[in-house]
Specification:
Length: 287
């Protein structure tokens, strides 16, 4: 069986080249071969069905995703691939149903904190999960980080990717959550040194960590760690790096050598950071 990410890259290549029928064939293969990835493969199939002039099939795929509990990230429905069906009443009805379900879920951001022993104002390490995950993704690393002297915090977004998983698609809501995480930490009686704050994130959480550090919002950040950080539009970050005169950031990006969807973006953003005088390492790991 072909690797999921190799097929994903083939799909992206077909899409960029306008070979929508070929892309659809790859998407359907991914959907059949990787049922555990159904939360994203339905989206690939529906996009390419729409691009291929198959509106009824695209709407049926979206309906199936909604009924099957896979359609939570509403920004997927804003994709230009759906422009051909966007004005249809049945498309709008599906979108309305998805929005109602999100409102009924009433998700709140939350944190899990592990404090170091005997440190009055430790540095803060705030860990941000990837898309379609939650704070449990970083939970195993809290005690080792606290043992090293950090106030270690795993944070969970308020944006549902499913009944028990979250994402960071809406940047403004994500920045609001970041401020709320610090409020929750303080409300629980934990102090930390505001001049020693590090953000660590996996995949989409890595993107949020870098965005927050570069924009200094909602609080200043001195260090950033991206584990397979997802930079789908590196040019935007590079422009921000070149435009903003920030205090020197420290940190690292950790990326697999064969991780095609993430390596190129991480290398470009890393190069821009280094050229701007920031002390951020890039470590390529096997696999």
């Amino acid at each position: 069986m072909a690797d999921f990410y190799d097929l994903q890259q083939d799909l992206f290549d077909h899409h960029r080249a306008g070979r929508y029928a070929e892309g659809l064939a790859v998407a359907e293969r991914m959907q059949a071969d990787f049922p555990d990835r159904s939360g994203i493969t339905w989206y690939y199939v529906a996009c390419l069905e729409s691009r291929c002039g198959r509106p009824e099939a695209a709407l049926a795929t979206i309906r199936s995703a909604l009924d099957g509990g896979q359609l939570w990230r509403l920004r997927t429905l804003e994709d230009h691939d759906f422009d051909s069906i966007r004005e249809r009443p049945d498309f709008q009805e599906l979108k309305d149903q998805a929005e109602r379900r999100l409102r009924e879920l009433r998700v709140e951001p939350r944190v899990r904190v592990t404090a170091p022993d005997g440190v009055r104002l430790p540095p803060l390490l705030l860990c941000l999960h990837g898309a379609s995950a939650g704070l449990e993704q970083f939970a195993p690393y809290l005690e080792p980080a606290a043992a090293a002297g950090w106030l270690a915090v795993a944070a969970e977004s308020s944006q549902p990717a499913g009944p028990d998983t979250r994402h960071w698609d809406d940047p403004e809501r994500a920045f609001s959550d970041l401020g709320g995480f610090l409020n929750q930490v303080r409300a629980a009686g934990h102090g930390f040194d505001p001049g020693r704050v590090a953000l660590a994130g996996f995949s989409q959480g890595g993107l949020l960590a870098v965005d927050a550090a570069l924009g200094r919002r909602p609080f200043p950040v001195q260090a950033v760690v991206g584990v397979c950080p997802s930079f789908p539009r590196p040019a935007r970050l590079i422009e921000l790096i070149q435009r903003e005169k920030l205090p020197r950031l420290r940190g690292a990006f950790l990326v697999g050598e064969d991780d095609r969807p993430y390596r190129a973006g991480a290398e470009q953003v890393h190069e821009a950071l280094v050229q701007a005088g920031h002390e951020v390492a890039l470590q390529l790991l096997p696999g």
